[in-house]
Amino acid sequence: MLSQNSLLKRTWPMLVQCAEAHRKPRWLPVAKSKIYRIPKRPVISEDERLELMRLHNNYKTQMRSIRRFYHEEMIKEKSTRESASSEMSQRLEAEEWARCVELNEKWNAQVAVEREERRKLEVAALEEYALKKIEADDIKLKERIAKASEEIKKQKELSSTFITPENLDAAIDHALANPIDYNFAIDLKGNKYEGRDTQIQYTKAKEEKSASATA
Amino acid sequence: MSLPPASGTGRYFARAAKSIRLIRQGCTNRPFFHISVTHRRRLNSQPVIEQLGSYDPMPNTNNEKLVALNLERVKFWLGKGAHVTDPVAELLGLSGFFPIHPRSYMTAWRNRRTERENIAKLEAEQAKAKPPAS
């Protein structure tokens, strides 16, 4: 891919429109009909010629002086540019540098003060945040401790009902004496009938239906 | 592709002779010229070193032929020893930067002469046409 720069900086145009496109080639001889044609020379009268010569001489002299003037000006400018590295300019440059350094230091001091203020504010904010966090953590811990102590109290209260090796036999006896049946059934209405051997009390409509079915 | 910048894109050789010349940039039947610095031996179709101005030879609605010139750069290139072609020298002369070019004087007096001759011819014709009428 050609870059635009390469297109712009090319030394030869991409499209050359040459004058030969509508002219005959250089190597062709003069046309037969034009062999004896002599181009007419422009006629300039003597007065006009002398006047033009005078004008041209004047013009050339003036132009020469103008050219020399610009050339000398250019040389002068060049020399002033080169003399920019002289002692005087170096001194000026040093002064400028010192001034710049001073200004820079002033700015630095100003910025340092501002930075210190900002830092203090930031530290204060950080401290506040930390204290708040510590307080919140304390409260949370206290809450947890309270919750745990409550739980312990509850468990202690419950511990009187625990089965221990001492009252294990009594508990077994009690359990054997009072069997509990967890089986149950549910009817379509969601009524729960506990026990394996519980008798179901059918409703009246059901009985009628069943009776009609048998009949 | 965008147009090349006025600072020019042509290659620059310090020791080669430069010339400030008109370079035709218009299209068919619409001449328009750039005033450019380029190497003396370079074709007008080739990229220039720098464009110094423009010249529109077709008069606009106010009957003006507009010329734009960057005189600072013209001074710079003259200081560098650039040659100036006759048409550009004429334009610079009319702009007051150079003395008036002799060719400008010549065209002026020739135009005046032809005008005088035309007027004389017209008068002669009128004089010829009058006697039979009177």
TrEMBL record, chain A:
It comes from the Eukaryota. It is found in: Mitochondrion. Pfam families: MRP-S26 (PF14943). One of its GO terms (cellular component) is mitochondrial small ribosomal subunit. Keywords: Coiled coil, Mitochondrion, Ribonucleoprotein, Ribosomal protein, Transit peptide. Residues 104-158 form a coiled coil. The keyword rRNA processing does not apply. Belongs to the mitochondrion-specific ribosomal protein mS26 family. This is Small ribosomal subunit protein mS26. It comes from Mythimna separata (Oriental armyworm).
Automatic annotation (TrEMBL), chain B:
This is Small ribosomal subunit protein bS16m. It comes from Mythimna separata (Oriental armyworm). One of its GO terms (molecular function) is structural constituent of ribosome. InterPro entries: Ribosomal_bS16, Ribosomal_bS16_dom_sf. One of its GO terms (biological process) is mitochondrial translation. One of its GO terms (cellular component) is mitochondrial inner membrane. NCBIfam families: S16. Keywords: Mitochondrion, Ribonucleoprotein, Ribosomal protein. It is found in: Mitochondrion. The keyword Iron-sulfur does not apply. Belongs to the bacterial ribosomal protein bS16 family. Its main location: mitochondrion. Transmembrane segments: none annotated. Coiled coil: none annotated. The keyword DNA-binding does not apply. SUPFAM superfamilies: Ribosomal protein S16.
